[in-house]
Specification:
This protein has about 90 residues and is mainly alpha-helical. The protein has one domain (about 5-75). The protein has 2 helices and no strands. It starts with a helix and ends in a 15-residue tail after the last helix.
């Protein structure tokens, strides 16, 4: 790794750390406000629900793949309608 890339990674880590610290400080200030504990609790509940929703959405892709496979298998099981070998001539 070049020294420029190492410096960029260190700066990124520093920036992420500063953002995390600022977020923690903001949450602490929010919880100190009247009704802030409820707001922090609601944010935590929202985070949990979004995580659960993300897991369910990822599961939809697997279900779609299974349905597509079953549809192909079903199509393979269906027999085409029987054809007549030759058209009939009208009897006179």
């Amino acid at each position: 790794m070049t020294s420029g890339m190492a410096r960029t990674n260190e700066q990124d880590k520093d920036l992420i750390g500063r953002l995390a610290d600022a977020g923690e400080e903001a949450l602490q200030r929010l919880s100190d406000l009247p009704g802030g504990q409820r707001a922090v609790g609601a944010f935590n509940d929202l985070r949990v629900r979004v995580d659960e929703l993300g897991k369910k959405v990822r599961g939809i892709d697997a279900l779609e793949a299974r349905v597509a496979k079953l549809e192909r298998e079903l199509a393979g099981l269906k027999k085409p309608p029987a054809r007549r070998s030759a058209p009939r001539k009208p009897s006179s």
